Amino acid sequence: MAFFWDWIKNILAYFGFGRQAKLLLIGLDNAGKSTLMDRLASGRIIQHPPTSQTRSKELRLGDITFIAYDLGGHVQARRVWRDYFPAVDGIVFLVDAADSARFQEAFIELDSILHDETITSVPILVLGNKNDKREAVEEENLSHALGLTMHRTGKDTHAQLNGRPCELFMCSVLQQQGYGTAFRWLASQVKSAT
Ligand SMILES: Nc1nc2c(ncn2[C@@H]2O[C@H](COP(=O)(O)OP(=O)(O)OP(=O)(O)O)[C@@H](O)[C@H]2O)c(=O)[nH]1
Ligand SMILES: [Mg+2]
């Protein structure tokens, strides 16, 4: 557990000192957003009913504050996503990589975020979650299905980018695998944008 907190602390340290980084966790319902939020906040797996009220968790570590907003993913709840766009520092878009029947629906939502004029330079981390499941597709397949190939900017945490940073990482929140690297990438992009 101590190792886990150190690991999270290192990730959060990337966000810089004394400023609040505002992150949105969005994606279709059932993608795993609330599960991820609890993992990040407490290291635990908690079963939730579908999120109807936005939840936010604040993690204070030293003088660094990290606020994550977990927004519901069902159709009605998606309407409020844009209310959170002003002053956002990073967007995490979760996809259930084992639910190929819903890739098209995820593509439509993600595409409208990628083309939203109010957040043209905000880094976007796409997480292909649940890759512990047998049905989960490979990264390149998911990238293609989500129309991400043209938007991806690479996993290098030191690259100086002109356009918006956008990248896809596969992970399993359940098995605590993959999202550490992904958040390190996102943190590096948020930091280099400030
Ligand atoms: N196998 C597997 N299941 C997962 C993983 N992450 C989340 N789940 C499961 O997926 C289901 C939905 O997770 P939630 O975190 O409630 O999904 P959500 O994105 O918050 O959904 P909404 O609140 O409805 O938008 C739960 O049963 C989780 O236990 C994972 O990495 N692997
Ligand atoms: Mg939820």
Labels describing this entry:
GTP-binding, binds magnesium ion, 194 residues, alpha/beta, binds guanosine-5'-triphosphate, metal-binding, Rossmann fold, GTP binding, single chain, Small_GTPase_SAR1, 6-stranded mixed beta sheet
Write the layout of secondary structure elements.
Elements: H1 2-13, E1 20-27, H2 33-42, E2 55-61, E3 64-70, E4 90-96, H3 103-114, E5 124-129, H4 139-145, E6 166-170, H5 179-192
Parallel strand pairs: 1-3, 1-4, 4-5, 5-6
Antiparallel strand pairs: 2-3
The structure holds guanosine-5'-triphosphate (GTP) and magnesium ion.
Strand content is 15-25%
* CATH-assigned fold name: Rossmann fold
- Superfamily (CATH H level) name: P-loop containing nucleotide triphosphate hydrolases
- The N- to C-terminal Cα distance equals 31 Å
Please identify, by name, the CATH architecture.
Answer: 3-Layer(aba) Sandwich
- Report the order of strands and helices: HEHEEEHEHEH
Rg from C-alpha positions?
Answer: 15 Å
Strand order of the biggest β-sheet: 2-3-1-4-5-6
Mean of all residue-level pLDDT scores: 87
- Low-confidence segments, given as residue ranges, are none
Structural class: alpha/beta
How many discrete domains?
Answer: 1
- Identify the overall geometry: globular
Bound molecules: guanosine-5'-triphosphate, magnesium ion
What is the highest CATH level, the class? Alpha Beta
Largest sheet: 6 strands, mixed
Family: Belongs to the small GTPase superfamily. SAR1 family.
Enzyme class: hydrolase
Membrane topology: Peripheral membrane protein
Subcellular location: Endoplasmic reticulum membrane; Golgi apparatus, Golgi stack membrane
